[in-house]
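Prompt: I keep going back and forth on a fold encoding question. Comparing notes only helps if you start from a blank page. Show me how you would write down a chain together with its backbone fold. Please set it down just below, with no commentary around it:
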Amino acid sequence: MEQPASEPSPTIEELGETAVLARILPRLEPGDAAILGAGDDAAVVAAADGRFVVTTDLMVHGPDFRLAWSRPHDLGWKAAATNLTDVAAMGARPTALVVSIAAPPTTPVSLLEGIADGLRDALAALAPGAGVVGGDLSASSVLTIAVTAFGDLAGRAPILRSGARPGDVLAHAGSRGDAALGLKLLFAEARDADGEPDAALADAARARHPHLVGAQLAPSPPVSAGVTAATAGATAMLDVSDGLARDARRIAEASGVGLEFHADALGPDPLTALAGAEDHGLLATFPAGAVIPEPFDVVGIVNADAGRLTLDGEPVDTSGWDPYSGWDGGTG
């Protein structure tokens, strides 16, 4: 028997803000730390030891994602993941997100519902107990997702970029270069004859390369490893979002040390591992002799050559990802 065609989703403009929120909010959980969730002018979130970690990040159609390549669920998942790892990099446990979305009025409400589902599922998978406690909706010519994330230090001191010392061990948790390879595949295989992103070609590319394309569109970073590193005595840590080498330089400069990577620890393509961005792994340093906890892998050592990054003794390119590099203002 032939199935009836599903009805098209109404647009944001057709429903209005109140009705749109009524369809989105039930898809989201406030999380364990919420004393008061969405519905009032502001949420109330518990801060167990009187402090909280806070971070924010933007995803903008064009420079950060392409609607033809990313499913709505991907967008929500990635928006959560990119903020959760920033909280984790401080050694904190994520507790709550505030999410704001600006979108064209003609946007189907189903797209926002998909984003909400992605947020919910990413929180459940990557940071159990954390939830969405509020946010905002607005109109814009370009779809934009803004997330602010909060985290609990549970009485521990935050892990800063400035704590590495010569003799420390350099370790990394998460994938290295996979997201960059996934993006390269999308540009190579998911554009039409005019060079424009194509949804059907993107689906085909994802089917052929599920791990690499998935690492770009919906990464699964080791969020829980942030607390693991903190309790294991990490001396410095950060989220690797702009490329392993570029972000490692930030630790080197903040700590006044040098970092030496070992090529044989970076996989079959060390240069891609160092240059690739958006894996959202965690780079940390630990005291010499410390037991390096899973899922961290030792990838090098810290030395006294301030600000210098090397790979088996040779200087490393630290250019990495810069959102303004080559940007022409287009939406792609």
Q: What stands out?
A: The two ends are 41 Å apart (CA to CA). The longest strand covers residues 93-103. DSSP finds ten helices and 13 strands in the chain.
